[in-house]
Specification:
The protein is α+β, with helices and mostly antiparallel strands. It has two domains: 155 residues, Protein Transport Mog1p, Chain A (3-Layer(aba) Sandwich); 120 residues, 3-Layer(aba) Sandwich (Protein Transport Mog1p, Chain A), CATH 3.40.1000. Helices cover 23% and strands 23% of the residues. The strands form two sheets. Strands 8, 9, 10, 11, 12, 13, 14, 15 and 16 form a nine-stranded mixed sheet that branches. Strands 1-2-3-7-6-5-4 form a seven-stranded antiparallel sheet, with helices on both faces. A hairpin with a 5-residue loop joins strand 14 and strand 15.
């Protein structure tokens, strides 16, 4: 059974690392961020003098909230990562939904639209040394490359492609192309310098299309959401996120030209239970994840973290509450 897609009139909500004083108005896309700058970032009042950002002109900067990426020294980013350019992407990507969840901004490191990027993330919720230890333990359980401890802020760890550390009550994460851990530490030190005085993002950044699933989402979480992160992908698909200090539930869509082929291994999993959504949909009874194919080129992901056994009927109820915003 295919659920008819509902076309929303929601305007672009840009979730930027520094955040706004409140969610962007859905009907007023021209309203600027509440924490914005009409001049170059080194004129921002009541903050430390940030490093120059030669990759951003004043007219571009006026469209971008006061994020870490705006404050950071773009020339340093370019040098450390041996990149031909280091340009701030004014259209912010969705948050990185994980434990913890990070608000993210990005530097494009080439002129290609699909080229490498440096992602700079700051945790949505406050963090402690216990948070850092938990993330390090989780990474060590499935390492892609052995991580090494680093002395930055209140401690951290990293590899040749990422750095995670705790500073001033927040977790920070930098990830990008292959370099050296020392170079990522140098970029992390720049983050520490520029994070001073950065205003906290609003904890509740919401969209009505996501609100309709909140009651069921909080049943999945087992607690009220401490933060919300709703928005859209860079190609305009809805993103919803419900966040607590120990769990997260998110929904998003990805465009895949071979969507049918990608569903084959999911379909064959012994833990996959079919649900009547989209062109085909499944809930994984071992992880709680729901995957729905819409047409030949779109896959919708409903992801609870940490992955765990969740009553499949509850995940199906959640999917029914949100799926019509993704399906035709």
């Amino acid at each position: 059974m295919r659920i008819r897609r509902v076309v929303t009139a929601s305007a672009l909500t840009v979730v930027l690392l520094a955040g706004c004083g409140g969610p962007a108005e859905e009907t007023s896309p021209s309203v600027p961020p509440l924490v914005s700058m009409s001049t170059a970032p080194n004129t921002a009042p009541n903050s430390e003098t940030p490093s120059p950002t030669p990759s951003v002109t004043p007219s571009e900067t006026s469209k971008v909230a006061d994020t870490l990426c705006v404050r950071m020294n773009a020339a340093l980013v370019q040098t450390m990562l041996a990149a031909p350019v280091a340009n701030i992407q004014p259209k912010a990507p969705p948050p990185e939904f994980d434990i913890p969840t990070y608000d993210v901004c990005q530097f494009a490191l080439s002129t290609s639209p699909n080229g490498p990027v440096l992602r700079v993330g700051m945790s949505v919720l406050p963090a402690t040394p216990a948070t850092l230890a938990a993330t390090q333990k989780a990474y060590a359980a499935h390492p892609r490359e052995p991580a090494k401890p680093v002395k930055i802020g209140r401690g951290g760890y990293g590899t040749s492609t990422f750095l995670v550390f705790l500073s001033a009550g927040r977790m920070y994460k930098l990830s990008g192309p292959q370099a050296t851990l020392a170079k990522y530490v140098a970029l992390g030190q720049e983050v520490v310098r520029q994070a001073a005085g950065l205003p906290d993002a609003d904890r509740l950044i919401t969209r009505p299309d996501c609100d309709r699933a909140t009651a069921t989402a909080e049943k999945v979480l087992g607690a009220p959401a401490m933060a919300r992160r709703d928005g859209q992908t860079l190609v305009g698909d809805l993103v919803c996120g419900w966040v607590t200090s120990t769990s997260v539930l998110s929904t998003s869509a990805r465009r895949e030209p071979d969507a049918k082929a990608l569903m084959a291994p999911i379909r064959k999993l012994p833990t996959s239970q079919s649900i009547p959504l989209g062109d085909e949909g499944y809930v994984d009874t071992a992880t709680g994840r729901v995957t729905i194919r819409v047409g030949d080129d779109k896959i919708v992901d409903l992801v609870p973290l940490p992955a765990r056994k969740i009553n499949p009927d509850l995940m199906t109820q959640f999917a029914l509450a949100i799926a019509s915003r993704y399906t035709r």
